[in-house]
Amino acid sequence: MEQGREPGSNDACDVLADEVCALGRRAGLDAVGIADASPFLATRRHLEERRSRGLAADMQFTYRNPERSTDPQRTLSGARSLVVGALHTPAPRLQPPEPSEARVAAYARDDHYGELRAALREMAELLVDQGWQARVVADDNALVDREAAVRAGIGWYGKNANVLLPGRGSWFVLGSVVTDAPLPPSTEPVRDGCGTCDRCMSACPTGAIVEPGVVDARRCLAWLVQAPGSIPVEFRQAVGDRLYGCDDCQEVCPIGQGERSEAGHESSAGADVPAIWVLEASDSDLLDRFGRWYIAERDPRYLRRNALVVLGNATDEDPLVDALLHRFAGSPDPMLGEHAAWALARRATGKLVAP
Known about the structure:
Blueprint: H1 11-26, E1 31-36, H2 41-52, H3 66-69, E2 81-88, E3 101-104, H4 112-129, E4 134-137, H5 145-151, E5 156-157, E6 163-164, E7 172-179, H6 199-203, E8 209-211, E9 214-215, H7 221-224, H8 233-239, E10 242-244, H9 248-251, H10 257-263, E11 272-274, H11 275-280, H12 283-290, H13 301-313, H14 319-329, H15 334-349
Parallel strand pairs: 3-10
Antiparallel strand pairs: 1-2, 2-7, 3-11, 4-7, 5-6, 8-9
Helix pairs in contact: 1-4, 13-15, 14-15
């Protein structure tokens, strides 16, 4: 995605900006844009206001320290510019998982952030070679990646609070290079393409999108399967077959339908994980495979908790699954024992049950 430049900018910086953006695209980025590095004042107000309303639940991330995550100067003193990149992630395949298979959200199936950081580092190295300072930030709580992307003219905020790219939707991961190079920013923001569409809001399984662009983390499945403690009983049926993440609000978005259709029946390695394997695997095996995910307290028991809920929601009649659930119901771990008991009752009645 080629971004325009502001008129009257320094010729040498114009050339450097074009070189950096071209390098990012050669490194695999699907879109590159540039923004100024002034503080995200409105974003800071939004974070603080939503946290005060309880909408952040126990999430930390950029909510932990809004002063830091909305000010590029906290990442690099003297920062003048942000070079922002977007990397495509595969849209979900069209066919659902098999019974007792646990689903993984598209952005988490492979190490897409690793690929993104590698491309951002190439741009940062070019800036350093030219005598400037540069720091890479992506999904590390140092900066609100979405606001940087909107400022850089890469996309707009959808009603589901994701950044949507024109014609391609939100199937992307985002990150930035913070630099003291005075690069000319992209000239025009991307026009809001949502219009009156609110499919993402009505499709959310738990009604977590409480107003356009505002998500209540206390109801959001993507957060609930990451959060510490027990999954609230009232949301366990909605968890369905999800082991990690939730794509529902993206799947229904008409802006991203082309991406999903093109994915079709392509290889979906990493899309499904056997829930039984998650319960039987060792801690080290789970961390070796999923350690790049955000796992509460870095404790694999939370992946097992999610797998127990997945099996409780499975529709198959499998005595091996029931035997495994009975074993976990007797676990000395109260959280796992309670989720296993819920899963057994759910499979027996087919209804939402209390613990």
